[in-house]
Amino acid sequence: TTTTHELRPHLIRGHHYELIPREVYAALRCWYGEITPCICRRVVYDSSSLTSSSPPPPTDDHDDEHDDDDDEVFKKVEPHIVLYPNLNSSPSSQQQQQQRLSTTENGVCASCRRIGAKSRCSRCLTVQYCGRDCQASHWPYHRTICNSAKKKRTSSSKTETEMMMQEQLIISWKDVNWGRVGLNNLGNTCFMNSAIQCLSHAAPLTRHFLTNRFRNDLNSSNPLGTGGKLALAYDAVLKEVWLGGHKNACMSPTTLKRAVAVFAPRFAGVSQHDAMEFLAYLLDGLHEDLNRVKNAPYVEMPDATTGQRLSISGAEAWDAYRRRNDSLVMDTFYGQFKSTCVCPRCSKVSVSFETFNHVSLEIPQQQITTRTIPVLFFRSAPAGSANTRLVPLRYGVQVPKNGCVGDIKHALSGLCGIKPTQLALCDVYENSIYEILRDGKAVSTIRPDDFITAYEVDPYTNVSIHAIATHTRGDTKFNASNTNEEGGERNLFGYPFLTSFDARMTCTKVWNHIWRQVSRLVLWPAGVDGNSKPIIERLKSALTIRIVDNSGKPRPVFAKKQVESSAMLDAASILPCNSNAKIADVLGGDCTERFLFLSLEWSDIILDGLKLIDENRFLAFSDHASLLVTLDQCFETFTRPERLDENNMWYCSRCKEHVRAMKTMELWKLPNVLVVHLKRFAFKHALRREKLDAFVDFPLQELDMSRHCASSSSYTRGSISPTSNSASPGQSSMNDDNGENFVVDNVPAIYDLFAVTNHYGRMGFGHYTAYARKWNEDGMSDQWAAFDDSNVGGIKPSMVVTPAAYVLFYRRRIFD
User: Were both Cys, which of 529, 676, 731, 737 would link to 808 (CB 3.0–4.6 Å)?
Assistant: First the structure.
């Protein structure tokens, strides 16, 4: 009978076994004998495996008691072996744990996070690397964890408990603050911190530094650079952020600040600066420091000639620029513009190509004679209406600057479909209606920070009552003298609303009418509709409608005798929900007043563990398309022809003088990482610059840039645009010498957002923050992080798009 031997689980190479050639094993068996039959496994050597096994460079850190074993750390794990080839069924939990511990979990480089690492730290056996550069870069940050794991491995025979302890060490190290490290503010350096956080999430450039491969590209002799000092300072910051996250929650970018101050004195000191200006300098400086061209030749940048295919002209211009500029920064961030100038006198057309590392977009503005006013519109919900669940809609109403409120009503009527006579415009302040705007009031009196609301109401008649309602908590108590027992103001929240109803309605009908206007504010349980009367009654119990005066004090209109206590006052001012008395009879002489003031008091109700009253729902609304400015509109404005001014005239070689040409800028070659700058600061004169707080809607995913790119067609004399054979999105249509058409498939121009720089406040006195998420060639993370100097926290994707967005960072899904 043949005895079969099975391998123990959790075998780790370098500790339990070693791989040796068959000839070596035969020699050892001949010399020392063999106790058990040999177990043969086939070893596969990957063609991409590393062969170098040189020791790491010496380190200046001598505080480690195991420094004499440093050479062992960089031992290569090149061969691949399957230890359990006969396991046809699913492996056991121990085998799954071992397989995940030794292959899948450690298949990511601990330094650059690239998938498919081939080397392993032979001390602790917990991390893998792409190569020796990654190991050397990561060793100063891995030393402490490596020694701790090695002690556990060499102490005694491993039990399953010790294996779980080591695995927990590995998992916690991999999940802790990788790239989630804040940057201390060194004195108005939030502009620098936000730019660094966003740029550090550009995976190709960051990986170039974390793997130390940038050192091979350092150009210390480039007169346009900093001698490599800026790149080295940026490298120090990146490694502290991405490799030292397990040590500190924040760090000080002092080295980079000093390096920037030496070579760009405008960023020295503690003054506030523009984040985009700093980012442009940083990209240019890193490009020059990492420029692989040591001796740049003289290159002319010719314009496109008549009859030449623009695709060839653009390629020649790009190749000419690359002869002097070649770096990973250029490979990642640089693209190409197509510039077309037309002389207004002789109609000469000149086409040239320019490189860029960011695109500055103007935010489309309204005309000089008009003004766009945001108006939050509340639609009425009468009996039997389907509008009970509709949230308010905010419109962008465009009116003349010298117009009046009546013009706003007419413009809003065209957007929402409600007659101007049925619209009431109000100025809301501190959760209550501050003023009802008259039709004759001038638009110029409405300030930019005024919150304007509009309500659908009935026209003013003798039989209609208009009620102004505010929301408050139901725990406010009043005494008999109509004052708050706690001596404070009412706790108002949410948006107030204005509604109207017939004075001949009963109290029950009035109560139900108010409920229809506010029922959307209650979180309805799933599956509940208008027929679920028991649950609806439970929901209605959260609302108490109280009749008050214009100062918010209860009015005891339902009292049948003199109010002598707070309890009587409380009951005498509540609108009953089951009374057939007419509201006009209850109010009596007060019914002739123009407005009725109501206080809607809400009580907390929990149904099946679900809290039905949420104050955030009272502030919810949606934006109409008339208010939004999209990123596509900004690109369309950028590519629109414009007349050059007197300070930027173009020289016409035919007219032999400078002229105010018609210039058109178009995107020609797109970069892998697209940096978009939104011009929010408008220059008025030397002493005044205004910030544009317009909301620009930009996509988080699937930004299609093909629609904004110029087509690759032949250049015809006297034509501003290319010839008629325009390309379809994602493709370029060109003409060969015989006039035959053929199509060249381009890389899809689909981009995803991975970082945003935000600016709050006004120019020179604002504050910068950043939002970012991790990504690599395999995909993007769904988890966004918010960086506010030294503070780092999570943020929902729905909160990334804000009016404060200033610089956007997009990555191409498929790199060119």
Answer: 676
